[in-house]
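Weekly modeling sync, notes
Attendees: S.R. (lead), two postdocs, one rotation student

Agenda item 3: backlog of single-chain predictions. S.R. asked that every request posted to the team notebook include the full sequence so nobody has to chase files. The rotation student volunteered to paste the first one in as an example of the format we agreed on. Action items at the bottom.

Example entry:
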Amino acid sequence: MTESDLLTPSEAAARLRISRRTLDGHVASGGIRYISVGLGLKRKRIRFDPADLESFLERQKRAECPSTNVRARRLTRTISASGAIDFQALLEQRRAERRSARKSGLGR
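Predicted structure, as returned to the notebook:
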């Protein structure tokens, strides 16, 4: 295989019909193999083997598996035993208790 057989990142992205950014993400995660060419210290020059791209596509294929567990519709026939709480009434009750406690404490 010669370097002319290898694809640049732009060519590889175009062949896979994905963006360069998506291609870079797959490369970073190890999903797509690449070949490092050159001695770039600041930025790697990478190329892609078409066979590696094909194997990536094969790994990405998903088979639809129809579910064998058919979920029945959930029926609930219970009635909740909870009730509504009137917080405003509780607050007024506490205030009234405090007032009566103050009045009884002052009258002594």
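Discussion: group reviewed the output briefly. The CA atoms of residues 48 and 67 lie 38 Å apart.
Action items: rotation student to repeat for the remaining queue; S.R. to check formatting next week.
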